[in-house]
Write a structure and sequence with these properties.
By secondary structure, the protein is mainly α. It contains 8 helices and no strands. The protein is elongated.
């Protein structure tokens, strides 16, 4: 099973980079804006359980990679984790849609861009789940190669995934989110692999 072990580690590392991009909420202090604070509270409260879901999916992959896991187990764990992540990002997108545009300049564009990106990330994880499901667990060499491709895609996903989210969270919006206890709870740093 040596062949797939380093690949599993690579997969876990790529994941810890990519899975927490929505949690990169920033900013602190700033003057209160009631409308914006109410918006931030709604989004943060909805994000928190999804952030936990993403973290726990991430942790299950990390755990499965540290043991001398069988390909079947790795496949099952990864597929479930990707499905959870896909669902979580979709739910966050729905929460941002439901909250409406934040009460800031270009709020509507920022909101739409973020939702579009969250849905794209959700679809990317759904597609990774399908790739994992299709891997050949009987052939360890092929399985390792397949995992390597998935790790590469995860890496790309982590790098490309957060421009619209950063834009949504900059300035006043980020400050309003930083004031919400549920967002603070959601932004705990990812465990390093």
């Amino acid at each position: 099973m040596e062949g797939t072990k380093p690949v599993n580690k690579k997969l876990a590392a790529a994941l810890s980079g990519g899975a927490v991009l929505v949690l990169a909420l920033s900013g602190c202090g700033g003057d209160g804006n009631e409308k914006l604070d109410a918006w931030a509270k709604e989004v943060c409260d909805a994000v928190q359980p999804q952030a936990r879901k993403i973290e726990s999916a991430n942790a299950s992959i990390q755990k499965e990679t540290s043991d001398s896991s069988k390909p079947e187990d790795v496949q099952k764990t990864d597929a479930n984790a990707f499905q959870d992540m896909s669902d979580a990002y979709k739910a966050i997108g729905s929460a941002v849609t439901k909250a409406g545009p934040p009460d800031v300049e270009n709020g509507e564009k920022k909101q739409q861009d973020a939702v579009k990106e969250l849905n794209t990330i959700s679809a990317a994880y759904a597609s990774l789940k399908k790739q994992v499901d299709d891997l050949d667990t009987k052939d360890q060499g092929k399985f390792a190669d397949g995992l390597k491709d998935i790790a590469t895609e995860l890496d790309k996903l982590g790098k490309s995934g957060n421009d619209a989210l950063r834009t949504l969270e900059e300035g006043e919006v980020g400050q309003a989110m930083a004031r919400q206890s549920s967002c603070k709870a959601a932004t705990a740093p990812a465990p390093q692999s």
